[in-house]
Design goal:
The structure is a single chain. With about 900 residues, the chain is an alpha/beta fold. An 8-stranded mixed sheet has the order 1-2-3-4-5-6-8-7, sandwiched between helices. It has a 7-stranded mixed sheet with strand order 11-12-10-9-13-14-15, with helices on both faces. A 7-stranded mixed sheet has the order 17-16-19-18-20-21-22, sandwiched between helices. It is flat. InterPro entries: Acyl_CoA_acyltransferase, ATP_grasp_subdomain_1, CoA-bd, GNAT_dom, Ligase_CoA_dom, NAD(P)-bd_dom_sf, Succ_CoA_lig_flav_dom, Succinyl-CoA_synth-like.
C-alpha cells in the first residue's frame, strides 16, 4: 500500500464537527505545492510544535516526503475543502523508515497537521480516524507518535480518539503508543463525533433562518408554487423568498430572478424545476453560500445525478431528495412546512422519515388525526445524501422527539444504521414498515445458505438485532404508534380480556393468541373479587364476560382489580354498544378513560362499531394521557405484541461479542489471498484449503481423507474406519455443491470391495468431472443441523442456522442474524427455529452440546467478519449430540472483495 495507490482508497466526503463537508483522499504528486503552502502558512509556534524546531526547509521537506516516489509502508491522507488542502495525516511503518525488513512488524509512526485557523473543528481527528482504518487494512496494529509535552492539542487528539493510548515522557518530549483495536469504546467515540457533526450539518436544513423556493410558478398547479404556499400559510417564521425570473412576487412572497440576486443568502433552497436545470441551480446555490438543498424534482439521468451530488459535496450542502415530497419541522419559532402535502402537519413528538411521498402523506395525516403530531418530517426520495441514519441522530438530539417512524426501501450502510438504531431505540420507540417482503430473493442460489438468505430474512435480522419494531403496513404502524405513545409498556405478554359480549371476547382471545400473547387463567382469589363486583351471570374466566348488563362503575371496578393483579401485564377491554348501557346513561368507555390516576399497565379498547381503525381517547388522569381504541381485536393484539417485544428487548442487557481463543486470523487471510491469486474471479474451496480455513477458526470438522485412486481410497478408508468399520465416500469436483441431490455420495461402506465399487461408480457416472473423493467415518446418530453465512453486498455477512440435512430448503426452518454475533444473538439463533425443542432435549431427554453449538456459530461469525471475501459458507449437515458438535460437510466460496470499514465516518 502506498500514498499514490489512489484506486485502493478512493476519495470520500465526511463531516467536520461544525457540519462542514471535507474530502478525505490519498495524497497525489500534484499536491506538492498545496501541502508546502499548508506548512508555510502555519504560525512559527505551530511549526515548532509540529517539527520540534524552526527551519525554512521544513515545509518543503514535508511536502517532498508526502508527495515523493511511492514506497512500501507509507501512506498519507489529506483533507481538502473547496480545492484547498486543510490537513494532512501520514504514517510510515517503523522498520521501513529505518530501512529494515517490513515483514512481521505491526507498528507505524503517525503524524498529523492542520491548517492554522481550522483547529478545534475536528479536521485532525477525522483524518486520523481514516488513517486508522487504512492502517488496520494494512495489518498495522499500533501507531506511535512523538510530540512535545507542551503540544496539548495533538496529545488531546490522541487521548480523545477512543483508542487505548500509552504515554512515555522523555524529557521535553512524549512518546504515545496508540493501539488500533476496533472495540466498542472506539466505535462509540466515533459515533458520538459523527452525531455531533451530523446534527450540525442538518441544522440549516431543518431549522433554516432563510428559505428560497426555486421554481415557484405564477399559475396554480406547479409543485414549487404549492411548496411556497405551504411555507407561507404554515407560518414559517424566517425570511422567505421565491426564485422566478418572470415575477416580482408570488402569493405575496418577494420573488427574484436568481439565487445570486437574493438580498440574503438562504440557508435552505427548495428546488422544484425540471431535472435538466437542477445541477446548474445547485451550482449557483453553492457559489452563493446556501447550506442545504431539498430537490423535489424527479427524472434525473446518470450525468445529472452525478453533477448534482458532486456540487453538493464540493460546496458542503446537505441534500434531501431528489424525487421527494419535501421536509417539515414544527419546532415553535420555526414552523417550517416545505412540502406539497395537502395540509400542514400538527406539531407533536413523532419524527418521520420516508422514501415514498405517498406513505409520508398517509403518516402525516394519521399522526395529526391521532393527536400525536410530528416533530420533524423528511421525505428522502431517491436518497442521494440525507438518510434515515441522519434523521435518527437528529431526533436523538432535538429534545422533542419521543417516537421515530421510518419507511425505508433501501439502506446505504446497514451496519452503521444498526448501531445508531440500537442506541436510539433505547431512548424512544423506533417503528418501521417492513416494505418489500414479497421480494423473490436470490434466484438459482448456489448453496443452501444462499437459498435461505432472502432479503426479507436479512431485513428481519437487522430490525430484530437493533430493537426496531417492524410492522407490515402503514395502518399497523399507526396502530402500534398509538399504543406506544399513550400507554406504558407491558412487563410481559400476559393479557386479560374484559368484554360485555361473550362473542366479542372470543374474537379478542383468538386475536391475542395468534399474535403470540398469552391468556393465563385467573386465580380463584381474583375470580372471586371480580364476581363480587360484576352483575349476576358474569363469567370471570379469561376472557372475563361482564355481560351486557354491566354498568360503568362495575366495569371500572373490574378493570381496576385486574390491573392490580400481578399475573397480568396488559388488559384488552372489548365493548359493543348495547341498549342496556344506553338506557342507564352509562358510558362504558369512561370505565377505561376516566381513572384519575395513571394506570401502570397498558389498557386498550376494542370497539367493534368504531369507524376508524384506531383512535386515541384522552384520559382524565392528572398529566394527561390517552387510551388507544381499535376497531378490530387483531389490531389491538398486534400493537400489544409489538409493545411486549419492545419491553423484552429493553429489559435485556446489550449483548457482547465474546472473545475466542485459537483463532488464526492472519493465517486465514493468507489462505484467502493464495486462493484468490489462483482463482482471480473467485471459486469454491477444494476440501483441503476448506478444512485449513475451518481449522484457523477452531471449527470442529469430522476427520477426512482425500483419494484420487482406488488404492488411495482403500488405504484412507482403513485409516478412518471407526469401531463399526463403516465409512462414507463423497465425490468432488470444482463447483459441486448439492452432493446428495446429484447422488454423489455413498453411505455405510464396509470392506475394501465396497470401497472400490463405490469409487468406480462415482468415476463412471461423473466421468470427466470428478477430480477425487473425500472419505469420512460414518457419523453417529444425532440431530442434523445447518449453519451458514452469506455475504450480502449491502447488509454484510448474515449468519443462518436451523434444521439441516437433505430437506433443509424444503422445511425452511431457519433463523438469521447479522454478523458479528453477540452472545444474545447466538442464543436467539439457537432458540428461534422450530427445531429448538429437539436441541433442548424435548424427546430424548438429553440436550445437545449447546455450548459447543454456541461456539460453532460464534466462530463462523468471526470468520465471516474477518474475511469479506467469504461469499458463502455452507455447513450441512452439522451433527449435534449431547457429546459434541461436528461439521460433517462444509462448502466455502471466496470472491474478490475490497475490505470496507462500515463504521468509518463518511457521507453516502
Amino acid at each position: 500500500m502506498t500514498q499514490h495507490d489512489v484506486t485502493d482508497r478512493p476519495p470520500v466526503h465526511a463531516l467536520l464537527a461544525d457540519g462542514a463537508t471535507v474530502c478525505i483522499r490519498p495524497v497525489r504528486p500534484e499536491d506538492h505545492e498545496q501541502i508546502q503552502r499548508l506548512y508555510e502558512e502555519m504560525s512559527p509556534e505551530n511549526l515548532r510544535l509540529r517539527f520540534f524546531s524552526l527551519s525554512r526547509r521544513s515545509a518543503r521537506l514535508a511536502a517532498d516526503r508526502a508527495c515523493g516516489p511511492a514506497r512500501p509502508g507509507y501512506r498519507a491522507l489529506l483533507a481538502e475543502r473547496r480545492g484547498r488542502v486543510i490537513g494532512l495525516a501520514e504514517y510510515e511503518t517503523e522498520d521501513d523508515k529505518e530501512g529494515g525488513a517490513a515483514a512481521g512488524r505491526k507498528t507505524a509512526e503517525v503524524a498529523v497537521a492542520v491548517a492554522d485557523g481550522l483547529h478545534h473543528r475536528g479536521v485532525g481527528t477525522l483524518l486520523v480516524e481514516h488513517l486508522v482504518s487504512a492502517a488496520r487494512a494494512d495489518g498495522i496494529t499500533a501507531f506511535t507518535a512523538d510530540a512535545l509535552s507542551e503540544n496539548r492539542e495533538v496529545l488531546k487528539l490522541f487521548a480523545d480518539l477512543g483508542l487505548r493510548t500509552e504515554r512515555r515522557f522523555e524529557g521535553p518530549e512524549v512518546r504515545c503508543t496508540i493501539a488500533l483495536d476496533q472495540d466498542d469504546t472506539y466505535l462509540t467515540a466515533v459515533e458520538e463525533r459523527g452525531r455531533t457533526a451530523d446534527v450540525a450539518s442538518l441544522r440549516p436544513l431543518l431549522r433554516p433562518r432563510t428559505v428560497a423556493v426555486v421554481g415557484a410558478g405564477r399559475t396554480p398547479g406547479s409543485v414549487g408554487r404549492a411548496i411556497l404556499r405551504q411555507l407561507h400559510s404554515g407560518g414559517y417564521t424566517g425570511r422567505l423568498f421565491a426564485v422566478n425570473p418572470g415575477a416580482t412576487a408570488i402569493l405575496g412572497v418577494p420573488s427574484y430572478p436568481s439565487v445570486s440576486s437574493l438580498p440574503r443568502t438562504p440557508d435552505l433552497a427548495v428546488i422544484a424545476t425540471p431535472a435538466p436545470a437542477v445541477p446548474g441551480i445547485a451550482e449557483e446555490c453553492g457559489r452563493a453560500g446556501v447550506r442545504a438543498l431539498v430537490v423535489v424534482s424527479a427524472g434525473f439521468d446518470e450525468d445529472q445525478a452525478r453533477r448534482l451530488l458532486t456540487t453538493c459535496r464540493t460546496y458542503g450542502m446537505r441534500l434531501v431528495g431528489p424525487n421527494c415530497l419535501g421536509i417539515s419541522d414544527t419546532e415553535p419559532g420555526i414552523s417550517l412546512d416545505a412540502t406539497f402535502a395537502a395540509g400542514h402537519p400538527s406539531p407533536g413528538t413523532a419524527g418521520v422519515a420516508v422514501q415514498s411521498g405517498g406513505v409520508g402523506i398517509a403518516l402525516l395525516e394519521g399522526l395529526s388525526r391521532l393527536g400525536i403530531g410530528v416533530s420533524s418530517f423528511a421525505s428522502l426520495g431517491d436518497k442521494y445524501d440525507v438518510s434515515g441514519n441522519d434523521l435518527l441522530q437528529w431526533w436523538e438530539s432535538d429534545g422533542r422527539t419521543d417516537l421515530a417512524l421510518l419507511h425505508l426501501e433501501s439502506f446505504g450502510n446497514p451496519r452503521a444504521f444498526s448501531r445508531t438504531a440500537r442506541r436510539v431505540t433505547r431512548r424512544m420507540p423506533l417503528l418501521t414498515v417492513d416494505a418489500g417482503r414479497t421480494e423473490a430473493g436470490r434466484k438459482a442460489a448456489a448453496s443452501h445458505t444462499a437459498a435461505a438468505a432472502t432479503r426479507t430474512m436479512t431485513r428481519g435480522a437487522l430490525f430484530t438485532q437493533a430493537g426496531i419494531t417492524a410492522t407490515r403496513s402503514v395502518g399497523e404502524l399507526l396502530e402500534t404508534a398509538a399504543l406506544l405513545h399513550g400507554q406504558p409498556l407491558p412487563a410481559g405478554p400476559r393479557v386479560a380480556i374484559v368484554t360485555n359480549a361473550g362473542g366479542a371476547g372470543v374474537l379478542a382471545a383468538d386475536a391475542c393468541a395468534e399474535a403470540g400473547l398469552v391468556l393465563p387463567a385467573l386465580t380463584p382469589e381474583l375470580t372471586g373479587d371480580l364476581l363480587a363486583v360484576l352483575p349476576e351471570g358474569a363469567a370471570a374466566g379469561n376472557p372475563v364476560d361482564a355481560t351486557a348488563a354491566v354498568s360503568e362503575q362495575q366495569l371500572t371496578d373490574c378493570v381496576e382489580r385486574i390491573v392490580r393483579y400481578g399475573g397480568i401485564d396488559a388488559v384488552v377491554v372489548t365493548l359493543v354498544p348495547t341498549a342496556v348501557a344506553a338506557a342507564t346513561g352509562d358510558d362504558l368507555v369512561r370505565a377505561v378513560t376516566g381513572a384519575a390516576a395513571p394506570i401502570p399497565k397498558p389498557v386498550t379498547l376494542v370497539r367493534l362499531e368504531q369507524a376508524r381503525s384506531v383512535e386515541l381517547l384522552p384520559t382524565a388522569a392528572a398529566g394527561g394521557g390517552s387510551v388507544p381504541s381499535y376497531a378490530e381485536p387483531q389490531a389491538a393484539a398486534r400493537a400489544l405484541a409489538h409493545a411486549a417485544r419492545r419491553s423484552a428487548w429493553l429489559a435485556r442487557p446489550a449483548g457482547t461479542i465474546p472473545a475466542l481463543d485459537g483463532v488464526e486470523t492472519d493465517r486465514a487471510r493468507a489462505l484467502v489471498r493464495d486462493h484468490l491469486a489462483a482463482h482471480p474471479d473467485g471459486a469454491w474451496l477444494d476440501p483441503r484449503p476448506c478444512a485449513d480455513l475451518l481449522a484457523c477458526y477452531g471449527i470442529p470438522h469430522i476427520p477426512w481423507a482425500w483419494a484420487e485412486t482406488e488404492d488411495e481410497a482403500v488405504t484412507a478408508a482403513e485409516r478412518l474406519r471407526g469401531a463399526d468399520g463403516r465409512v462414507v465416500m463423497k465425490a468432488h469436483w470444482p463447483g459441486l455443491v448439492h452432493k446428495s441431490e446429484q447422488r454423489a455420495v455413498h453411505l455405510d461402506l464396509r470392506g475394501d470391495q465396497q470401497i472400490r465399487s463405490a469409487f468406480r461408480d462415482l468415476h463412471t457416472r461423473f466421468a470427466g468431472l470428478v477430480t477425487g473423493v473425500v472419505l469420512q467415518p460414518l457419523a453417529p446418530r444425532g440431530t442434523e443441523l445447518f449453519a451458514g453465512v452469506v455475504q450480502d453486498q449491502v447488509f454484510g455477512p448474515l449468519v443462518l442456522f436451523g434444521l439441516g440435512g437433505t430437506a433443509t430448503e424444503i422445511l425452511a426452518d431457519h433463523a438469521a442474524r447479522l454478523a458479528p454475533l453477540t452472545d444474545h444473538d447466538v442464543q436467539d439463533l439457537i432458540t428461534s427455529p422450530r427445531c429448538a425443542p429437539l436441541l433442548l432435549g424435548a424427546h430424548s431427554g438429553r440436550a445437545v452440546d449447546l455450548a459447543g453449538l454456541e461456539q460453532l456459530l460464534l466462530r463462523l461469525s468471526r470468520m465471516a467478519a474477518d474475511l469479506p471475501q467469504l461469499a458463502e459458507a455452507d455447513f450441512n449437515p452439522v451433527l449435534a449430540t449431547p457429546d459434541g458438535v461436528t461439521v460433517l460437510d462444509a462448502r466455502i466460496r471466496l470472491v474478490p472483495c475490497r475490505p470496507q470499514d462500515p463504521y468509518l465516518r463518511r457521507l453516502r
